[in-house]
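ugh ok so i messed up the first submission bc i forgot one of the chains. this is the corrected input, ALL of the components this time, i swear. 622 residues overall. if the numbers dont match what u have on ur side tell me asap before i send this to the collaborators (the ones from the other lab, u know who)
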Amino acid sequence: MKRQRQIFIRSIFASLAIVLVSIAGLSVAHAEIRVDITKGNAQPMPIAITDFLGQGQDEGLGRNISRVISADLERSGLFKPIDPKAFISVEKSMEAVPQFNNWRVLKAQALVQGSVTAEGGDRLRVQFRLWDVFGEQQMVGQVYTTVRSNWRRISHIIADAIYKRMTGEDGYFDTRIVYIAESGPETRKAKRLSIMDQDGENQHFLTDGKDLVLTPRFSPSRQEITYMSYYGNLPRVYIYNIETGRQEVLGDFPGMTFAPRFSPDGNKVIMSMARDGNTEIYTMDLRTRAVTRLTNHPSIDTSPYYSPDGKQIVFNSDRSGTQQLYVMDAAGEVSGAPAKRISFGSGNGRYATPVWSPRGDLIAFTKIGGGQPFSIGVMNVDGKGERILADGYLVESPTWAPNGRVIMFFREKTTGKTSKSTRLYTIDLTGQNEREILTPSDASDPAWSPLIP
Amino acid sequence: MSFRSLTYVVASLLLLSACSSTPSDQGAGAGSGGAAGAAGAGQIVAGSDRDFIVNVGDRVYFDLDKFNIRNDQRAQLEKQAAWLKRYPAVQVTVEGHADERGTREYNLALGEKRANSAKDFLVANGIPANRVKVISYGKERPVALGHDEASWAQNRRAVTVITSGAAGS
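and heres the new structure output, hopefully the right one now
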């Protein structure tokens, strides 16, 4: 039974062997259109995405691929897909230059065409072209071959290619979210480790809800998740292997271990251990199993997070009397310089759960008090330039999209005197375009995967 | 399971009312007081789980973002220590909890500090450290669900739970 489930999950996440070939343009280049992603969704770009052409049973598949691409681009807030019902005439082949006049009257700036063709066995050949409607030129064209069951991933990969060509930045659609699915009464919530695509599709439970599990994070380099579990009433950090379904306790610590994250090279896990009423930050080297203590202070030191170059660590500590953010060298403050406080924001707020951006220039955080009960914001790595992006009765646990442009978090809303709902949301770095990620149940503690290799 | 959680609710209500009137003598209040206490009083076996919960009181409360044992909570822990001395086979786990207004990870650490404060108090009052384990649940296991100070005050707690050695009840 258990074995069967593991094999099922493995087949879903098996690496793809997608073959990618660029296809030549059909016309001559002119000046280019481009989307400026630093301005939020002030003026989303109108884009026409036609159903991918397919024969017989693949007609529906072609339509579904277009819908996934369209939904990805729409949710980014940067694009406004035009309702296909407004299309005047759709090209029946990809091998001719489109009738640009038909698209210009719809004010479409860009046009996406594609096709899907059955190959031998269960293999598919999917191709697309992105056209600049006013410049009358092909901006990008590619062909992918893969197994049929990968059609969603191919759709996300195409959406990423369009996003990258139009914005000049990497996309984030071919990614997954690991999170905690919540169910049952508030006094004794069942929590399950869960995984889904970034658009909320392909939902899978990784644990059965018997043991309380919290705060999962993806490995940057392997198909692994680190998280905390109360298995056997011993709260400890674990590693979950996505390909095998195997769960392994990390190390043999004499106290509670929690708040785990991988180092940027994937070779270490940094976490807190609490023992005898004191919480300190430790690392464990996953190859040698060597444990290093990084902090030595009677206060609570937790929620550590590496800078993307691996040279520094931001964490939260209440050594000043309230929870604030501190930065130390990766070697730690036991052997090196003491950590420096960086959060001195407005309104006597407390700061928690710092997350260094993938670009290295910002730290996202949860702020408690200082205006709102809870808020999610970003600050420069020196603590200056604080900007609040989202707030609520309780918002917590920011996580960055791999391109550093979007932050996901969870929000608890009170729905009555003694009830609440907990859901996942994304917000642009501009503070605009807040979206809920639809999940089958209440959801918390999201963590965004790197771009799937 | 449902029996136990019901008992907790009864016990905590009695404790709260006891706190406001006669903080020094909660056991007597619980035994002879409200309808729930009176109904069950005849069946409570000395040295049992229920004896501890109803007649001693299994929990102490903390101030916001604090882990020190409040002056008004010391008598409660002294009673726990006295009872545990009377029943030396009993092993306990102190569960530390926080209210919903902190971040999840910080609250795990805070719950651990609270559980250890209660443990240290019991040890200082003569209970061997190897009889007392601790665990933190952070904000994961609230008992009061309101989003107000009255509920939060009940959730900032350390609960002494008997894990073995109690008389059957």
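quick check: Confidence is low (pLDDT under 50) at residues 1-15 of chain A. that seems consistent at least. Chain A has two domains: 2-28+44-167, 177-448.
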